[in-house]
Write a structure and sequence with these properties.
The protein is 34% helix and 21% strand. The chain is built from five helices and seven strands; from the N terminus they run E-E-H-E-E-H-E-H-E-H-E-H. The chain has helices at residues 36-44, 86-102, 121-132, 149-164, 184-195; strands at residues 6-12, 25-30, 62-67, 71-75, 106-114, 137-142, 173-175. A seven-stranded mixed beta sheet has the order 1-3-4-2-5-6-7, with helices on both faces. The protein binds guanosine-5'-triphosphate (GTP) and magnesium ion.
């Protein structure tokens, strides 16, 4: 998708107050600091559409963006990070859960995982939970610019192996880097494919 128009629609704490349920929506989730907001900026070719930070816990609400009047993107808070306080983590988890289970126009959830670290229990549990709730998912490995090709492959295999302990089939996997624009076309292709019919 060529992004000529990307508009910020607003931020909400409660998914049932968001409205804007007419256009197909694609949400980005993952642990705090994994690179969700950076990825949204990369996809929309905007430097500061979504706020980013080197400190985890930057995104604290459900943030909506309208792209080309065709689709909506939702930037979600991170679902966990050791350095984010327990109270904050609980609040975000509840916010995310309500959004994921109740958002009527959610077409697909992009679940981001950091390729630089071994599979985290929190990520695997989250993905398994979404699977159990039949939420359509695509996995995105982030920060690939920091790794060699073999390391990326090893990281992908490690995540797949964990998921295959539970599932016979696992979601598609896209390798990305917001720093160098990797994965952009593939992610938009998923979006285009999903809204085709
Ligand atoms: N090397 C590298 N760093 C990245 C990449 N994407 C994001 N980062 C860095 O990772 C940090 C976190 O990025 P954000 O996009 O704010 O992460 P987030 O997942 O939105 O974090 P929260 O909003 O706190 O949940 C920032 O310091 C970014 O510069 C990438 O592709 N490569
Ligand atoms: Mg963020």
């Amino acid at each position: 998708m060529k992004v000529n128009s990307a508009k910020y629609l607003g931020s909400w704490e409660k998914s049932d107050e968001m409205s804007n349920e007419k256009l197909p929506e694609f949400a980005f989730i993952g642990r705090s600091n994994v690179g969700k907001s950076s990825l949204i900026n990369m996809l929309t070719e905007r430097k500061e559409l979504a706020r980013t930070s080197s400190k985890p816990g930057k995104t604290q609400m459900l943030n909506l963006y309208n792209i080309e009047d065709r689709v909506q993107i939702c930037d979600l808070p991170g679902y966990g990070y050791a350095k984010v306080s327990k109270g904050m983590r609980k609040k975000f988890q509840l916010m995310i859960r309500n959004y994921l289970l109740n958002r009527s126009n959610l077409y697909c959830l992009f679940v981001l995982v950091d390729l630089r670290i071994p599979p985290q229990e929190m990520d695997i549990d989250f993905i398994n939970d979404c699977g159990a709730n039949e939420i359509p998912m695509i996995l995105i490995g982030t920060k690939a610019d920091k790794l060699k090709t073999e390391e990326i492959e090893a990281s992908k295999t490690a995540i797949a192996d964990k998921l295959l302990e539970v599932w016979e089939e696992i979601p598609p996997f896209i390798t990305s880097s917001s720093n160098v624009g990797l994965g952009k076309n593939e992610i938009w292709q998923v979006v285009e494919e999903a809204i085709k019919n």
